[in-house]
Amino acid sequence: MAKINENYLKLQAGYLFPEIGRRVSEFIAANPDKKVIKMGIGDVTQPLVPSVVKAFHEGVDEMAKAETFKGYGPEQGYAFLREAIAKNAYQENGIDISADDIFISDGSKCDTGNIQEIFGNDNKIAICDPVYPVYADTTVMAGKTGGYDSGHYEGIIYMPCTIENNFIPRLPEETPDLIFLCYPNNPMGTVATKEELKKWVDYAAKNKSIILYDAAYEAFITEEGIPHSIYEIDGAKEVAIEFRSFSKTAGFTGTRCAFTVVPSELKAFDSEGKTHPVKPLWNRRQSTKFNGVSYPVQKAAAAVYTEQGKKEVAEIIAYYLENARIMKESLTEAGYEVFGGVNAPYIWVKTKNGMSSWDFFDKVLNEANVVGTPGSGFGPAGEGYFRFSAFADRENTIEAMERIKNLK
Ligand SMILES: *Cc1c(COP(=O)(O)O)cnc(C)c1O
Q: Is the pTM of this model over 0.70?
């Protein structure tokens, strides 16, 4: 008799985006003449930049000739890409990360989920509330939790992030073994300063915990002094894994390329308290279960780090951030309390008069014909908040904001 992994039965149905889709379809069916502007989903809209497309084409052409054809590549990724990342994303910013610590993959979503496998099921996991749903769901799938009750899985340590704590979680009372942090944050669009991250790195060192640091939105940081990498903090190489992705940085959501940094210095413990380096475990996991990212995609990703590529990608990021600036200004004028949007492509809005996230969703959809994401969909502490994404095009962004300003 085949038995299922019963942990999957604990998972709550993916409710948020299907429910948004249902309400939007219903509205469009009832109002076919209305133009609905979508600022809900966290996906990019601008095409790949010319340097990336050129390298991508060249990669395909190489695959088309016997002399340059490539079969399986290294599971960890091609050296040319790992070296380009080490140099451009780290060493040039004074961070001592070597190509050998970098593992190329097809996405940070996969990596933040798969990383759970190399850590035992008796680890306590801490996550923020609200949060990117992947961290909790993959923790459940791995069997590290109990059942679900009123927005929380039993056994996960939830760290509420609200106006009251400036969207930076307090150090939890119960000590976690693995801590997911994401800055710049999705959904809140907020960032952590060096001092705040230092507090977490010191906490992890003291408690022998590991920080799983999702820096998918690093490229959107504009303000001086905000860390782009957790490794800017002294001691972080001993306690942190960093995830980065080309998805939001360079429009790779449909092309697929990301990387994970597991420094040689990072250690974890066996049941007898003996230390083991973590990197060989991740290397073993990837080499066994993953056969690498396609060669043309890795070529395309490396082009992000050429002089021209950097310039082109920076223009796209600036375009989205200008959208965010317009949104922040308009929503503030309209009397909302607004967070994020300066170092991230998300705007996190407090609804007025304690209106619930879903009531605000319906109001904005029905009266302004704009789609956003209810904050409560990212966790109970997101109730009373709403996320707008800055990935729409400029014209629609401006129109959407005019309509929201005119809301009664
Ligand atoms: C978009 C996003 C990612 C990137 O995922 P990919 O699988 O690399 O596309 C990672 N983390 C967060 C929080 C995100 O929003």
A: yes
Please tell me whether residues 339 and 399 are part of one structural domain.
yes
Domain contains 1? no
Please report, as a single letter, which amino acid is at residue 251: G
The overall average pLDDT reported for the chain is 96
Same domain for 219 and 274? yes
Together in a domain, 12 and 93: no
Q: Are residues 193 and 143 in the same domain?
A: yes
Instruction: Give phi and psi for 314, each to the nearest 5.
Output: -60, -35
In whole angstroms, what is the distance from residue 285 CA to residue 102 CA? 14
Atom of ligand 1 at shortest range from CA of 182:
13
Taking residues 246-260, what's their average pLDDT?
98
Pocket of ligand 1 (CB under 6 A): 42, 107-109, 132, 182, 186, 214, 216, 245, 247-248, 253, 258
Ligand 1 pocket test: which of 106, 182, 248 has the largest number of ligand atoms within 8 Å of its C-beta?
A: 248
Q: Are 60 and 188 part of one and the same domain?
A: yes
Nearest ligand 1 atom to the CA of 252 is 9
Spell 168-186 as b/e; 16+ CB within 10 A means b.
Answer: bbeeeeeebbbbbbbbbbb
Give the list of residues 6+ apart from residue 183 with CB closer than 8 angstroms, or none: 190, 191, 192, 197, 213, 214, 215, 217, 227
- pLDDT value at 408 more than 90: no
pLDDT per residue over 233-249, tens digit each? 999 999 999 999 999 99
82 and 229 share a domain? yes
For the stretch 288-321, pLDDT in tens is: 999 999 999 999 999 999 999 999 999 999 999 9
Domain ranges, residue 86: 53-306
Q: Which amino acid is at 405?
A: K
Q: Are residues 25 and 62 in the same domain?
A: no
Average pLDDT on 131-153 reads: 93
Q: Residue 403 is encoded by which pair of tokens?
A: 């309509």
pLDDT at 151 over 90: no
Q: Residue 209 in contact with residue 178, Cβ under 8 Å?
A: yes
Per residue in 350-372, pLDDT tens? 999 999 999 999 999 999 999 99
